[in-house]
Amino acid sequence: MKPVIFHVDFDSYFVSAARVKNPKLKNFPIAISRDKSHAIAVSVSYELKKQGVKTGMKNYEIKQIVPDAIFIPSDMDLYVSLSNKIFSYIKNKYSQNISVASIDECFLDVTNLIKQKQIQPKELALQMQSDILNVFQIPITIGISHNKFFAKMTTNISKPFGIGFTDENNYQDQFYNLDIKEFHGIGRKNSQKLKDIGIKTIGDFAKCEISDLKLQAIFGRTLQDFLDKLNPDIWENVIYKEELPSGIGNEKTFTDYDLALEYKVNALTELSEKVSKRVRAENLAGDVVVVTIRERNKVWISKQMKLSKYINSAQELYSVAYYIFKKYFNNKDFIGIGVRLTSLKPVKQLYKPINLFNLQELNSKPLFEQVLSEQGSDLHRKALLVLADLSFENEQESKDKTTFGLYRK
């Protein structure tokens, strides 16, 4: 029997979660965003999408389209807690073979359950969809196929609150007329490069050969992987493993671009506390700290530092983040800032205490004194970390026009 793979995606998850918390918001045009005109919406309801509003728009742009739009602040604790409950429920009731892809989506191998119940995949999907809605009040869309890529693509064309099935008999009808930008994993930049050489649709791409030099210039060694994704004869099983996020972070964009530098830097404290709270809620710790700023041209620039020990407290995270900022960004003009902790591991797997203090190594006293003199008053003279054990390998700079690290997709 061919494997039966479900891709389960929570519809407009942050909006749906907000409605679980406040049912009175149901059927209203909702955007998840801070209540500032230049704030960016990280999720919008289908009531807004139907009128042309898209995720990533600024509040004032949304108001121009839908004047009565309602803006609800983000609640990451709610999102993480609720999604974990849903994933656990699915794992315990439907299949142990689950792979969590992000905060609002997972892959599920239901092959054995289909055999046991002797039902059709769509029938099982309908049961699951109704079940999750009744128990958690979260609408979901389910894509069904024999591998994860086809299942994911099927979900994308079945939203909202839909169920779709793709196999070797209908995959061309399902996908080939779609714009090339809808090819999951290719990305916006490569999609435009493909259009520039005449590849407008997924069907156009399917006709290409591995020997195409123009495609090789775009994809390099990964070209064969992308071409293989459209092969319906590739089957795939999903095996459960405890998925860890690659990193957890928060960012803040300033609505007033002319704020004093001191005010913007103070945001590091707030962001470090938020990140620490989320990391500790999942019993994780990390040894790579990333600080990102958003320049006035809307481009994010990041620097990261690998530590010799794992950390997860707000104080430790702030001390490292502040050091990175002072070293690389102190003279930059920026309109947004972010903090991220990556290379995460469960705390239970760490044998050394999560602590940056090293009383044997106080060779970074000048840095400590600098932080103390410049930030001591802001921290109300709380104990500060000595950065003696920071390792400076893997310092990187990257430019990315996408939103920084709020989710783990």
Automatic annotation (TrEMBL):
CDD domains: PolY_Pol_IV_kappa
A GO CC term assigned to this protein in UniProt: cytosol
Family under the similarity heading: Belongs to the DNA polymerase type-Y family.
UniProt-recorded Gene Ontology molecular function terms: damaged DNA binding; DNA-directed DNA polymerase activity
Segments forming domain UmuC: 5-187
Biological process, per Gene Ontology: DNA repair; error-prone translesion synthesis; SOS response
Record's protein name: DNA polymerase IV
Cross-referenced InterPro entries: DNA/RNA_pol_sf, DNA_pol_Y-fam_lit_finger_sf, DNA_pol_Y-fam_little_finger, DNA_polymerase-Y, DNApol_IV, Rev_trsase/Diguanyl_cyclase, UmuC
One protein family per Pfam: IMS_C
